[in-house]
Write the structure tokens for this entry.
Amino acid sequence: MPVKIRLARRGRKKQAMYDVVVADSRAPRDGRFIEKIGTYNPNTDPASIKLDNDKAFDWVMKGAQPTDTVRAMLSYRGIMMKKHLQVGVNKGAITQEEADKKLETWMKDKESKIQGKVEKLAKVKADKKKAALEAEKKVSDARAEELKKRAQEAEAALVEEIKEGGAEGDEDVAEDAAEVEEAQATEAPKEEPKAEVKEEAKEEPKAEAKEEAPAEEAKEEPKADASEKEDDKKEG
């Protein structure tokens, strides 16, 4: 029966993960399989690939046909390169030592490329984060400057309003003083009759005192009459 190395979907919706399986080509995609040889997670950057290299190489050498996606994964991990060299060894084109040496060199070069890609991605991510922080800082500084400017304008407007209010208050005080002076000037003539009334009131008691003087004399006259009577008695 034809055997394929393919992916079987796992994971939840919009977070797909895959198992790398060896299965009958006639079986459903997520159905029965012969053996699981690894996992594949495309949600990371770079994608996470976990394979059992020995099992994958064994099935490839037995004639199992990988799908396009799985073939790219096997090439990425050096399985297809190892198969190519092993076929050369089997045909006698190269020795096993030469094949192993070439494979080791190829793997080191591949690992350095992978590491370079990882570092590049990390640098790009750090640069993006730094740029975002700088942009956010610029926005924050601009906002702070705008708030400061508004506060200064509000303070200047308040000072100006206070000055205008003080000037208007001085004018109001001057107007009030003028009104008071005018009121006093108009009320002054009305106070003169009051002074006359007071003077008349003071003079009236004096007149009464003068009128009462004869009454006192009248009181003294009886005394004189009494002394005259005494003199008359003496003479008699």
Observations:
- The first helix runs from residue 53 to 61.
- The mean pLDDT is 77.
